[in-house]
Design a protein that fits this description.
By secondary structure, the protein is α+β, with helices and mostly antiparallel strands. The chain has helices at 4-10, 13-22, 39-50, 55-70, 74-87, 96-107, 109-123, 147-160, 240-251, 266-273; strands at residues 130-134, 169-179, 186-206, 211-227, 232-238, 285-286. Helix 5 crosses helix 6 and helix 6 packs across helix 7. The protein starts with a helix and ends with a strand.
Length: 288
Amino acid sequence: MASLSGFIRKSPSVRLQQFLEARGMEAPADFDWTSKGRGTAFVQSLEGLLKELPDARQDAVKAELELLASLADGNGMTGAVQVCAGQGIDLEGLEGVEDVLLMLALQHPRMIDRVNVQASLMRRHGGKQWARFQFPDDGKLWALDQRSARDGFLKDTVDILGLPSHRKREADWYQSIRVDPLTGTETTLTQATIYIEEHAQSELAFGEKSLERQTVQKVLEVGIACDPIERIVEICAKGGRGFATSTFILSQRTSRPSPKHPSRSPAAMFYWMFFAKNPRWRPFRRMA
């Protein structure tokens, strides 16, 4: 994870110029975009140009740059490679992680959110907010490419989390390609990031004249990565409550039957979500 100033200094000058100009920043014709040998002075000169933007625009550009800087490490680069490989985006010839992230922000902005998800999954790998499960092979294909299965998956996730049906929800489905560092074997994963509106919270914020209390609608994020061949599911969530609930869905076996489906535990219902039709549940094992 790089600092904002470090990210700016290491970014290719042409790509950084393209990015900032696309965000409405205007630089004089004689502005020196070269950072080599004058890193601190270059960052300060850019900060001066950013201050000329309207406050709201200035905050938005800085926030975006800070997000990119937070992804400018090994996990961010690996995440970008995985996501871009799955989407057919060519990274050949780009000059490092800063160049890759700025290019994606310019040409494929939706990919930045996906790279952020990948990096988050890797950072949480093996931790309290991550778990992996493997289902037995019953010979039935997982219907993860069908719209009906995906819509049902999202609906049932909201139900299992115990959230009201009127809560806004969205699922971003995409494919990524993971490469084994030892064998070089490529594995195509089907992934989904589920965003669900949670209870609103009241927070203080600066208004036009003084501090004002505003309502912030929180969002629960749950990430799922599925390997349809090996029948492996990884789950990761931001926030203790979200992850605890999501892991409970997967970790329960038959101890607490669902009231709607007495013969299926919450884990069985999750297993069912991955199919276009409801198959007979079979136990799975937790791998980590």
